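Box S1 | Example of a co-folding query
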Amino acid sequence: MLEAQDLSKAQHWTSPDDEFSNRASSLTPSSVDFLQGIGAWKYVDQSRVQPYDEMQVWDGANESRMQFDWAAEAERYNAPRRSLATMTENANLTRGLLARISELSGDGEGSLFSRTTVAAIENGEDDQDGLNLSSWPVLSLSSADTTKSVPSRIAARLLIGADGINSPVRNFAGIASKGWDYNRHGVVATLKLEPKEDQSFDSFSDSSPEESASATAYQRFLPRLGGPIALLPLPNNHASLVWSTTSNNAAYLKSLSQTDPESVIALINAAFRLSQTDLEYMFTLPSTPSSTFSSSLSSSSAPQHPNSYTHAAELAWRLPHTPQTPHAPPSITGLQPGTLASFPLRFRQSSSYISPRVALLGDAAHTIHPLAGQGLNLGLADAKALVETIAYGVAHGMDLGDVMMLERYNAARWAEGVKVGGVVDLLNKVYGMDGTVAGWVRGLGMRVLGMDEGVGGYLGRGVRGWVMRQAEG
Ligand SMILES: Cc1cc2nc3c(=O)[nH]c(=O)nc-3n(C[C@H](O)[C@H](O)[C@H](O)COP(=O)(O)OP(=O)(O)OC[C@H]3O[C@@H](n4cnc5c(N)ncnc54)[C@H](O)[C@@H]3O)c2cc1C
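Box S1 (continued) | Returned holo structure for flavin-adenine dinucleotide
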């Protein structure tokens, strides 16, 4: 295993109990099952993961709403209660995976090369006195790892490219990757939330992961702001923010976070409560480091129009004039310093996940919009399928890396990657459209999906069940 980054940092990652990394992922139950099955989940610090079984989704353009309540659906069909998903910091997961690799290798991670970059890949040569490597990839390595002797070249019977969106392995294999940039950024941050009075339902929970199945995730679509804002629960009244928005808005939030974090908190609270017009206006306000208003919603009892146009004051003034959804998240009270960052959002799909002696997985094979939190889940499902393919090849004495053997992996994963990426892209397009007709059609769709009674209820329950089964993997 070759990795350009310093894996010892990942192996020794620690964080105070009340701080969380801004890079966190929502794992489906089947991803967690897979991680349990390979023996890695036990090394993931469970006090830092947060399962949730409910999701509130609504549209800022027309306030139509859809709710996924796994506990209620399970009760309706007398099925075992499971989490809808589990939030995990990526660093916690990576540390757990490395601990499991270390346990399995038993030789001090002899085949794990950290701080080692694949500088070039080319086909090997046919050595008349030795092996014919002309169809084997040969990797030239450049290493800064001083803890062990790293070879300068490695020949691979099977080269697995899990090397991200710009995959050098994919380029070497000549596999086409098509797609587009969304011209949007995913703004992430770690937030602190006000505890709700009733922690037993519809709130972020501060109980242990085993008993905290009542935590809720929230997502509001804001087409005029560039995309959805999502709040995903982390333990002890923390949450992970993923706000897909325009590059200008992302730059505005980032610059504001350095000088005026209270205003960022006010903007995020506003994004779950105010109209899109109000929000657009708030994105034009200057930074106000001397804000005298608290950005917490608990201080929103002063409905006079502010003399100083701070973000928090605007929120406090506009809130009483805006109809409120009962399903908004608890008030955000804190922004963990240094956690607000943004990532460009892109869509890519490879024309194949295999070529002779090469298999692609994860973002190297497919990169998708994060609105449904499926990118890493797809990558883990790829890994599972590739392991099964290799095990099948070994059991049947096949040449590992031969394209006939790898075809099994491609058949299991390529169409699935195209389907999930396509559905997520379609959702992004539908929920990115502004305008009366688009909003009306979306609203109708969401109302039907949210129904429990009559023909709409039949359809709604069916579609909700389908979506939840997809989430389960
Ligand atoms: C804002 C945001 C939120 C998201 N939320 C979720 C979520 O909730 N759930 C979910 O499932 N997914 C989520 N995703 C998607 C998820 O983060 C990605 O799908 C996942 O991280 C991809 O992992 P990967 O290992 O395939 O690629 P990467 O994370 O890009 O890793 C590639 C690795 O290859 C290494 N590498 C590259 N080139 C070389 C080289 N030449 N030599 C050596 N090493 C090399 C890099 O150092 C890197 O470590 C989110 C994405 C974003 C942007």
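The chain has 13 helices and 18 strands. Residues 2-5, 25-26, 117-118, 162-164, 168, 186, 188, 242, 343, 362-363, 370, 373-377, 379 surround flavin-adenine dinucleotide (CB under 6 Å).
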